[in-house]
Amino acid sequence: MTSTSLSHAEFVFPASFAQQRLWFLNQLAPENPFYNVSAAIRLTGHLNITALEQTFKEIVRRHEVLRTTFEMVEGQLNQVVVESVTISLAVVDLRYLDVSEREAAARQQAIAQSQRTFDLTADILLRVSVFQIDETDHILLLNLHHIIADGWSIGVLVRELGTLYTAFSSGKLSPLLDLPIQYADFAHWQREWLQEQLEPQISYWLKQLANFPGLNLPTDRTRLAVQTYRGATYNFEISKSLTASLEILSQQEGVTLFMTLLAAFQTLLYRYTGQEDIVVGSPIANRNRAELEPLIGFFVNSLVLRTDLSGNPSFRELLLRVREVTLGAYAYQDLPFEKLVQELNPERDLSRHPLFQVAIALQNTPITALQLPGLALSQFEFDPATNRLDLELHLWQTSEGLKGQVIYSTDLFDSSTVTRILGHFQTLLLGIIANPDRRLVELPILTVAERQQLLVEWNNTYKDHAFNQCIHQLFELQASLTPEALAVVYKDEQLTYQELNRRSNQLAHYLQKLGVAPEVKVGICVERSLLMVVAILGILKAGGAYVPLDSTYPPERLKFILEDAQVSILLTQQSLASLFMGDWGDHQLVYLDRNQEIITQQSQENPNTSVTSTNLAYVIYTSGSTGQPKGVLVEHRGLCNLVDAQIQTFAVKPEDRILQFASLSFDASIFEIVMALGVGATLFIVPEEARLGSALISYLRQHAITHATLPPAVLMSLQPTKLPTLQTLISAGEACSPEIVARWADTRRFFNAYGLTETTVWSTVAEVTDSSCTSIGRAIANTQIYVLDAHLQPQPIGIPGELYIGGVGLARGYLNRPDLT
Questions:
Q1: Nearest to residue 412, comparing CAs of 230, 534, 198?
Q2: pLDDT at 584
Q3: Geometric angle at alpha carbon 584, from 582 and 589, rounded to 5°
Q4: Could you tell me if 194 and 288 are in contact, meaning their C-beta atoms sit under 8 angstroms apart?
Q5: Cys-Cys link to 676, which of 595, 604, 645, 681 (CB 3.0-4.6 A)?
């Protein structure tokens, strides 16, 4: 490790604008190492430690900035340059460790050294460590603070290292001429130049970045209020052949390779976010004068590259837009980023960078090109575990193609997500080379494996059900197998499967005489009772489709549903007769209680009908996106698939006791009814007065309910208590919160079911055990789920989009409206 001491002779110069900004950031987080610059070089061969120490002494002598600290005087930040620094280079000998442990120990110590903070007012801001792995194997670690160095500076330092070490190891003097200017001269010139050129520079950038948007990049976790700068690094490569193809395309289009990579990167961000106005950052060396090239110092500037991707252009068209943006930025690159931030004055936000959240850079000066006498040099890679932005994409050119590195925030992203991002980027590059004239939304981003997973594997939900059956036939099968089993209970009334089957058969025969047949819609408006279930089964057995009407609806809505559905027969009760008095159109009213004597004279045998699995089972009206009710047409095969999926998911058995909670006008009611009657279980219709609060808890306990489907709002209103028989609880109808899971998922199976009325009640389900994850789960049997963008292209994992659902449960369409697609 380097040990240093300072002389007392000092020279004071104003700091550069870039140094001022880093000083400010350091004051905000003085113990944070995120602005350390580190590099490690493996030296294989015989290392001359004396020559190496002499080399660094000379490098520090040559570059004043390596002898610089900082002080604030009356609001002015100054560079304080000391006349000389005494450096004593020590070696950390790791040979006492087992051979297999040495490299890991060197990497661990390199990470620890890279995370040591600097005191900008007192420390020399260069640290050098040498780790000895073996007699002919050393690792040289350089640590500098960004306030005195940038990426280019590392290249300067390593080149001088090569030249000086070569000379000193041979007993020669330094062949390098003294530098004509120092970094402090640049800082002075920058201030004078800016006084003359400030106005046109600021004018360009204010126009270019007017009302610039933030980037809503999807992340794995919610952004913290204050950025921690915890990060990780992931390395990757782009093949030599793909790199060559990208270079050829760039030449053909009159753009640089960087412009092509930038356009591809912005295309990927567009596909991820759907935003057509994409802003990214890009570092630029800012050494546009020859005399600045050999200096170590903080010259790098950040360009803000804003591209308009609207109109879904082809990639070739986008390249022209990116070229214009990039050339404009280069022409006005001298405005210090710090002045730009000051002029734009964005709202202060400690959770993110002020102007951009992602950046891209292309470098072409790899360290591995150097050679030292008796030594072979290679890069020693380690992850300092810090970051400055959400995501940075760094690329550099080698003889073997492009190599890359992604630095990302571990507060926001998992490593698996970054791996996917890089897979998408490379797939996109291949698609661009294959056809640069394709529109941006048509370019591929999914890898072959991911496309197979999303479109095939995760949607391989086929189950060989008896799709030629109807839902009432499943009930009839249960009635024949267990005629004496209890089918339905309401208060002190109950019906066995045999009794329920006979009563619903009698109603079905009566309805057939009234003209009910396949596709005929029959309205139901009854109070909660056994009659409700008898009516549904009677309509289905007659071949018709039931249309539920809630007696609490306004008369205007009831009338609309009857007319829109063209209901010719309405089943109701005498207690509700007042709802349908007056001009209600040509609807035949059947009072199930008043007409009971006639109905009971009908046959108790299962009626014959030509209804098939593709005929309507029910029509349920939803509010519709515009507020106007719309009737959703659901077929028998969707209900049959529903029953089988329930059996598979919830392990429903004949001995189970199923709660019927939902109103008949909501499709959750049929979800509950068929869960019981489709497998031979018992359905318990909870009375209206027991549907809330402690009364509901008492009902669940009293009747030993095993399976209940309840909306989250109801679950939140209930006080959790011991319900030993309630083994399965299903949350449905609304978003399920972590609080609900924590309350109810401790002693029973807890499911989060999701779906639309248009998909036969549900489409996906997840068994939830962890309150930190309340996913809607995966597709149920014979259902396909796709997350698509606005152009109906499949979205990658973790990228939001619109949910598209298909399968046998998909409703036929909307009554009197276009069919579903």
A1: 230
A2: 67
A3: 95
A4: no
A5: 681
